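Hey,

Quick one before I head out. I ran the complex with magnesium ion overnight. Inputs first:
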Amino acid sequence: MEWETVIGLEIHAQLATKSKIFSGASTTYGAEANTQACAVDLGLPGVLPVINQQAIEMAIKFGTAVNAHIADKSVFARKNYFYPDLPKGYQISQFELPIVGHGEIEIQLTDGSKKIIGITRAHLEEDAGKSVHDGFFDNTGVDLNRAGTPLIEIVSEPDMRSSEEAIAYLKKIHSIVRYLKICDGNMQEGSFRCDANVSVRPKGQDELGTRTELKNLNSFKYIEQAIEFEIERQIEVIESGGKVVQETRLYDPNKNETRTMRSKEEANDYRYFPDPDLLPVCIDQETIEAIRKELPELPEAKRDRFIKEFGLSEYDSDVLTSNRDQAEYFESVVNAANGEAKLSANWVMGELSAVLNKSNIDITQSPVSAEMLGGMIKRIKDNTISGNIAKQVFEAMCNGEGSADEIIDNQGLKQVTDPGAIEKLVDDVIDANPDQVKQYQQAPAEKQGKLIGFFVGQIMKKSQGKANPQQVNELLQEKLK
Ligand code: ADP
Ligand code: MG
């Protein structure tokens, strides 16, 4: 039997507001436990929530970016359940009337094909507190700092058919919320989280299979692994005569498996009702249009522009635009490098990325500014330095030794292009190695390419890497004949 996988994702993105969704308490991550939850976040008697206008604007931004309908009237509802990290006994969310209605985005797969994924809705809600297990023996701590942090929950249609599609969709949403600067996207800190709903069905069947919901997925890698594991598990259950049970399962990255966490609640278990403390949110068309006009260029548009304007490959453009800061950095490099796009792309995606990854820092904290990198690329382009020497210059820039021009000057790294000087180097090396010259001359043409490397190596060493490699090669070939 051939099986088809069906996946729908629920993404929770924390909105990057300074204060909480219904109170003035700070949302800064990492404060001492229970120092950033106020009476409203705790739901103490007699307090009243007040909606944070910025959270509304951010939700509208998201909705317009995914071409969704923005509701002219949306309503906050109470979702009632008990949990130690929710002392109020209910979470303020949206139920029947969410702020963002149906939308869609396009994803691109590794084989180059494209697919549209539907977004069912996106609604505003408050985050809960956090249970803390580390550092307590036989007890669980409760940290309520996170309580009341604004979230947008983005619910997809069950449109994805593989873990690859699910990850592509997730990365696309991740990139969009960061472009819009409505969420910092930090998965380790829990600012961007995802539950994956997974089911399987016989290929060709219309009706959906029973799904399970996977939780505790805080990296792209874990999400992919959890989905893969779950697909296999469900197929095995069905093929051995069993039935998939609708439930919530927890992914354990250490064992790479999913386990039952709880049976699935139905919406009516939550006894949703409109929150009597909050007014409906009414948004007029002008507000929506004003926000739409202010939208930044989004990843897809930027990618297409990079292809057209800079002549970059689809792959390079995709990588460079996956992150807005990186895309903006790249454009500044190109500017500073007099429009030299391909070299700039190589350096941003190559050496610079490697340095950032190694020190685990963001491109906004790069030790080398875009102007400095562009300045160095200009010197590769005008033949002042070779690509190899550039690596040395780049390292020096990373160490704060100044601009490319200063480093080239101070360390005497200017490339030797004077034909006379290069000829002298070539002659010296040929004279010093008569055996290798003979070997070269007797070798068949297809072997000579490799043998010439010996001479090039010697010459580069003698010139401390400064001889222009192209000139050296040309002259060598001529003289060795
Ligand atoms: P809840 O999880 O709150 O009960 P929904 O019924 O809205 O909410 O579904 C949540 C997610 O599950 C959606 O992203 C939806 O696309 C997905 N989903 C629903 N049914 C299936 C299914 N049979 N297989 C896979 N995903 C599904
Ligand atoms: Mg769910």
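The chain has a mean pLDDT of 94.

Talk tomorrow,
K.
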